[in-house]
Amino acid sequence: MTEPTKKKLSELAEYSASIFRTRNITRLDAIADMEDLQISYDSYENAFDGMLVMDGNYWHIHIDNDGGNGQGTRKGRFTLAHELAHYIIDEHQRGIACGEFLHASKFDVNRSDPREREADHFASVLLMPAQRFRAVKTPRKFSADTIIQLSEEFQTSFLSTVQRFCEIGTHSVCVVFSQNNIVKWYRKSVDFPDWAFRFKIGQTLPSTTIAGEFYSDRQIKYTKPEEMDPSIWFYDKWSVSGKMHEQCYYSDSYGYVISILWFDK
Ligand SMILES: [Zn+2]
Hints:
Elements: H1 3-19, E1 21-22, E2 25-26, H2 28-34, E3 38-42, E4 50-55, E5 58-64, H3 74-88, H4 90-97, H5 114-127, H6 130-135, H7 144-154, H8 158-168, E6 173-179, E7 182-188, E8 196-197, H9 210-216, E9 226-228, H10 230-233, E10 234-235, E11 244-251, E12 256-263
Parallel strand pairs: 3-5
Antiparallel strand pairs: 1-2, 4-5, 6-7, 6-12, 8-10, 9-11, 11-12
Helix pairs in contact: 1-5, 3-4, 3-5, 7-8
The structure holds zinc ion.
Zinc ion binds at residues 82, 86, 103, 105, 116, 119.
């Protein structure tokens, strides 16, 4: 996504979020009502998370309850925000209307279709507008509790909140997402040290990381922040004065682990 596109989508999403909100919670149903969009929550057996379709002159959003997208759930809210994006972004809506963009979204952080990435970005900003996100008073000392607090505040999933935090959060972090001990993706704040990891995407994690230890024995679950030598994760190029921490978030239902790494300020 180019920077001008990202900026344009952010402005569009921030505008909707500024009108339709209760405290910090974006009222997605109110946006759908205003646009005359019908939303159906139903059992689609994990075929997709959400789908925007045109039926005659009417637009419908179908949402799959089976994939954990129930109405008002945090994953469901992201799915709905993503589908609203396809409706609100002109180019997407036109593509779907003329059948050129056949659309059924299944959540995947590494989606390659640029329209899916645009809709994800729009959804993220719609649910967590930058100014409001950064204005939430969180404890001075960062930990995963900061992310949990923000996800409560905005009614967003831990996963989408931690990604947004990498982009615009108030503390520099690095986030590594793994499933069955395979690294699927990572995100870094722009000011996090630019060191090479001791693994590649698609490989296993270093065994002495907190997440790595969990995969070698699933009874071991450290949920508190642990001090960590950066050279366990990285080929660090210079010594750092602050201590690095790792804290893991374990999703039992989806079978993944999110490792958050950060330094004291
Ligand atoms: Zn989509």
